[in-house]
Write a structure and sequence with these properties.
203 residues, alpha/beta, globular, 5 helices, binds S-adenosylmethionine
Length: 203
């Protein structure tokens, strides 16, 4: 089991945004959609043992559960449409602190980074903070049941850093990378360490 917690600092909290303007008025929702694609999509299939938590402005958590996920395509626009549906379900919900499944495998509830951290910790996952100034992932011992926290296009806020400083901080290399590229690298690192043969990935 692997999990990715991605912090979206400017993504709208309501469904009133245009799918034609994900990088603009939708607050860089394109970044989060690419993270979802990177976390789940293989060349011919979906990684079923993955959970993604999108934390929107530290107020809403959208959870993608690979074991139940349907209708996920590799393009940003259709993923954004799934998130928009989730936000619509959330806006109509009378019990916002209770998770609601908006489409198969996509759940939404009120919550923030601390809630996502609590969930992955309760599930027995080891949490790692992905940060440009961390220690090298190559030398790190990585637990196969792991959760990785990333920011979107912006720096971690001081209050987020305060919650994360108790976890190991890992760097993927000397350059600052796009969040979705970090997810691909982490998957690859764990796939190699798990000794997955290429035949494991064939249908
Ligand atoms: C585009 S970067 C964030 C923006 C960047 N910190 C800045 O200069 O504004 C997106 C996220 O990917 C992760 N990341 C990027 N490069 C990384 C690296 N070399 N090692 C580990 N994590 C990295 C971090 O979580 C980072 O917050």
């Amino acid at each position: 089991m692997r999990a990715f917690i991605v912090l979206g600092h400017r993504v709208p909290l309501t469904p009133d945004f245009s799918l034609n303007d994900l990088p603009g008025s939708a607050g860089r929702l394109d970044v989060l959609c690419r993270c979802v694609t990177a976390a789940f999509c293989l060349s011919h299939g979906i990684r079923r043992d993955v959970i993604v938590y999108l934390v929107l402005q530290n107020q809403i958590v959208v959870r993608f559960d690979g074991s139940r996920l349907k209708h996920l395509n590799p393009d940003e626009r259709s993923t954004a449409a799934l998130i928009q549906k989730a936000l619509k379900a959330f806006s109509e919900s009378e019990h916002r602190d209770r998770e609601r499944e908006s489409t198969p495998g996509i759940f939404i509830a009120a919550g923030g980074l601390s809630d996502a951290l609590e969930r992955v910790t309760r599930a027995g996952l080891t949490v790692y903070w992905l940060h440009e100034q961390g220690s090298s992932i190559r030398q790190a011992e990585l637990h196969p049941r792991a959760a990785f926290v990333l920011s979107d296009h912006l720096e971690f806020l001081p209050e987020e850093a305060a919650l994360l400083e108790r976890f190991p901080r890992l760097s993927l290399g000397p350059l600052s990378l796009h969040a979705d590229h970090c997810i691909v690298i982490v998957h690859n690192e764990l796939d190699l360490r798990a000794g997955l043969a290429s035949s494991d990935a064939l249908p």
